[in-house]
Every structure is written in C-alpha cells, then in structure tokens.
Specification:
This is N-acetyltransferase domain-containing protein. It comes from Cellulosilyticum lentocellum (strain ATCC 49066 / DSM 5427 / NCIMB 11756 / RHM5) (Clostridium lentocellum). GO terms for molecular function: acyltransferase activity, transferring groups other than amino-acyl groups. Residues 7-178 form the N-acetyltransferase domain. 33% of the residues lie in helices and 33% in strands. By secondary structure, the chain is an alpha+beta fold. The radius of gyration is 16 Å and the shape is globular.
Length: 178
Amino acid sequence: MITTKRLQLVPIEIKYAKDLLALWSDYEVVKYTYNPWCKTIEDCKARIEHIQKFIDPLHMNNWVILHHNELIGVAGVPTVSDEKGEYGLYYQLCQNHWGKGFGFEVAKALVDELFENTNATVILADAVTVNPASMRILEKVGMKQTHLEKKSFQREELVGDLMHYQLTRAEWEESKLI
C-alpha cells in the first residue's frame, strides 16, 4: 500500500470490479485512453484480470485509489523495460474528483515510490494534447516533453496529437535538492 496525505493506493483486485464500473463506464474518463470502455461488471472483471497478467512480480504496479475508503480512480506504473529500468505512468480519476489535486498527488507518490524503491532510471508517459489537465499533472511532477506525435491517438471517432513525456532518475534527484 502507498499512502499520501489524503489517499491510499492499494493493489487492484477483482473485489473492486463493481466500483470500477463507475470509472470505466464513464466515456469522459476513458475517451483519451486506450483502455476498453466497460459496460458491465463482467467487463471490469475481465479488465482487472488482464491488468493482473502484467503485474511486475518484483513490486506491485497497478493500484486503485481510495479517498476515505471510497474508490476514486486507478493508477499504475507498468514496466516498459525491466533491463533498462523504464516504467510508464498512468492515472484515471472519477469525474467528480477532477480538479481537486488528486491526480498530482497520485502521480507524485508513484514517481517517488519508483525512484526511491526500484531500479527505475526513467518514467515515461503520454497525454493527448486536448487533455491539458493531464499534461499539467505530468509537468508538475517534473516530467519533460520529449516529442509530439501528430494525429497518433485514435479512439473511435477521436483523433488527436499525443505528447510524450519522460522523467529521468537524475532529473528527479536534482529536483529533490531544490
């Protein structure tokens, strides 16, 4: 478990499927992701089982986000390349919890957890450019834009530009000194 000032991140499990339905069935939450849109609890269970297949056995890397024991989102740091120490970063919050600083709080906690307790050398993320709130979160935790892929995000009728980000261990360590 990872605990922040206001949140708890606990390993994702099937028992959260019902609560995750509210998150993953909300088109506004999932529209800028590649995650499937879940319409039933069974869809959520299948999604959780899929996520669990890719959990790094060395450390838990997919979490549900709890605020006062209420599930308000999911987040994770999937392994991109264990050899290179590359990890990804993602987060999704229920709409009624947008704009409260939870996205930053979760992202910062996961970045710190990775660099303090793993072999991570770099954390990678991306955001669709029409989602400036997500871009601000990534930049606020210290991630730097690396490149823009024009029209590389596609989901149903949506087509958008994808901004790629990274934060190296050296950059993170330097930011801790300031």
